[in-house]
Specification:
The chain is of the alpha/beta class. Among the domains are: 126 residues, Rossmann fold (3-Layer(aba) Sandwich); 101 residues, GMP Synthetase, Chain A, domain 3. The chain contains 15 helices and 27 strands. It has an eight-stranded mixed β-sheet, sandwiched between helices. Strands 6-5-7-8-9 form a five-stranded parallel β-sheet. The radius of gyration is 23 Å and the shape is globular. The N and C termini lie far apart (54 Å).
């Protein structure tokens, strides 16, 4: 750091968790000066929307429609309960709740008291709860299940626990202004001074390839600025967005919900407690979202679902796929079913984003053109040298959406961040002559067969082109001689039998795939298993594939 540079911003929780901004302060200030960040905290932005349009629908869930005025009353009630329990500024509050108004209100209430939220999907097991709350030293938590409350005795930093479920020892009921839960209402809420917009607001959780879930700290400006800029680009014009978010709001992709759709953009958030294709189709007809956001597997299940009586998609502008590579066959199925464009998003909780909203979804467009209001993207060699157009290398990103740092993981900061704050994604890609990004695969997901690297993403793209394949995922299978073999897991297209392995390899050879990249095992599946965040669970598929008999002779 030179003598003219401002020192890195540092935030420390009351229980000693240090979050250091790895992006130089001068860059953060420059982005704000250019208007890429609102320079306001999430709760202040939300409160402004409440004042401007109190009657607008904020959340639509199984309980009905909740407008901004009703949501604000709920947020203030929960925030007052947090304050009465001793929670406040410089605290981390974990949220493990299903999608719905409780999850939205709880996250906004955490922002209202000046604390940092740590949402994580309800499908994760107790091991992840102990890991996340233990490493983050969360002082407060809101749970929906009594089993989570019972873990309190193993979490010495946890001081205040609330539950949205049945009353149980060790937890207070999360209050609501309508009095639908037992317990006295707290005194009126008085918000503290607004926090620094560059201070942490939310911790995103991602399993990634690490042994324990990664936690990535994002500031108010990164969420309401860079991340909101990407969502705003999906929805040109001045009308407020109406987003049906199929993934858990507590996931990385789900952070487009409460902090962005509601707090930053003042739109309407439509959610299901858990993903149900028929229910989602009914919501599209009844509540007319402008966009449906989901992982490709979810969108494919919507497209393949039998038509419902009276279904109406005229309010829909686009479907947005993220969380995994979008197979062309899935995009085509969605266009046929809904008659609307499909937008592919490349992004991760580590801090990168690019999409095809402005370029269109074509092979030539790749994953779109990077937006500097979201994140600048470079492709580099291992030593950080920026590579010319057309040359593949590691994708690196930095911009208004860039997170502060990893939480309680200096080893991850050292591995995935540079001295100038750039995010090392671990993804392989290239920028073409038109400045469009093409993602070629995961550097850390390569299958190594006899010393030869195979990109699962490349093989998946080719397999998905087969007319009998609806979805394809490639996983490694251990081999005592070659190290690993490639197994392709296939869900057949509706009304067609899954191709056999010889049929599939012949198809791939006809498409020009190298012989040594051909899959050697085939695992047909009725449905792809989904993890807590809604993505296909590769570990489950790999475990199933490992039980298949290995080929007698290797190619």
């Amino acid at each position: 750091m030179t003598t003219t540079e401002a020192p890195a911003a540092v935030w420390t929780s009351r229980d000693g968790i240090v979050l250091r901004d790895l992006v130089p302060a001068r860059d953060r200030r420059a982005w704000a000066a250019r208007g890429h960040c609102p320079d306001r905290d999430l709760y202040s932005l939300f409160a402004e929307h409440v004042r401007r349009h109190p009657g607008r629908a904020a959340v639509i869930d199984a309980a009905g429609v909740l407008d901004y005025a009703g949501l604000a009353a709920r947020v203030r009630c929960v925030a007052a309960a947090f304050t009465a329990a001793g929670l406040g500024e410089r605290d981390i509050v974990a949220l493990r709740l299903p999608n719905g108004r409780d999850a939205v209100a709880a996250e906004l209430a955490v922002a209202a008291i000046g604390a940092v939220s740590l949402p994580y999907p309800a499908g994760r097991g107790t091991r992840d709860t102990l890991s996340l709350l233990g490493r983050s030293r969360a002082r407060g938590a809101v749970f929906s299940a009594a089993a989570d409350v019972a873990l309190r005795e193993h979490l010495p930093y946890l001081r205040a626990v609330f539950t949205t479920g049945d009353a149980c020892p060790g937890a207070r009921p999360l209050p609501s202004p309508g009095g639908d839960r037992t317990g006295p209402l707290p005194p009126p809420f008085r918000p503290p001074a607004a926090p620094d917009p560059d201070s942490p607001a939310r911790i995103l959780v991602s399993s990634g390839s690490e042994a324990e879930p990664k936690m990535v700290a994002y500031s108010h400006n990164a969420l309401a600025g860079g991340r909101a800029a990407y969502v705003r680009a999906l929805h040109p014009g001045h009308t407020p967005p109406r987003h049906l978010v199929l993934v858990p709001l507590a996931s990385s992709f789900g952070s487009c919900g409460t902090p962005v759709t509601v707090a930053a953009l003042g739109g309407t958030l439509l959610v299901q407690e858990s993903f149900d294709p028929a229910g989602a189709l009914r919501m599209i007809t009844e509540h007319r979202p402008t966009h449906v956001l989901g992982v490709p597997t979810m969108l494919r299940r919507l497209a393949d679902h039998p038509p419902l009586p009276g279904e109406d998609f005229t309010g829909l502008r686009a479907l947005v796929a993220s969380g995994a590579a979008l197979p062309p066959s899935t995009a085509a199925a969605c266009r046929r079913r809904f008659g609307r464009p499909v937008i592919a998003v490349y992004g991760s909780s580590d801090g990168v984003n690019c999409h095809t909203a402005t370029t269109g979804l074509t092979p030539e467009a790749g994953t779109g053109r990077p937006d500097p209001a979201v994140a600048e993207i470079r492709v580099t060699a291992d030593d950080g040298t920026v590579l010319p157009a057309g040359q593949p290398g590691e994708i690196r990103a930095r911009g208004p959406m860039t997170p502060l740092c990893y939480v309680a993981a200096p080893d991850l900061d050292a591995r995935y961040r540079t001295a100038a704050g750039w995010v090392r994604t671990g993804d392989l890609g290239l920028l073409d002559a038109e400045g469009r990004l093409h993602v070629l695969g995961r550097l850390r997901q390569l299958v190594v067969r006899g010393g030869y690297n195979i990109s699962p993403a490349e093989v998946e793209r080719e397999v998905a082109a087969h007319p009998g394949v609806a979805e394809a995922v490639c996983v490694p299978v251990p081999d005592p001689d070659l190290g690993e073999r490639l197994c392709v897991c296939v869900r057949a297209a509706p009304g067609t039998p899954a191709p056999t392995l010889p049929e599939l390899t012949a198809f791939l050879e006809d498409r020009g795939l190298e012989r040594r990249k051909l899959p050697e095992l085939l695992l047909p599946v009725r449905e792809m298993p989904l993890g807590p965040t809604g993505k296909v669970c590769r570990r489950t598929l790999a475990s199933r594939a490992a039980r298949l008999p290995l080929p007698v002779r290797a190619r």
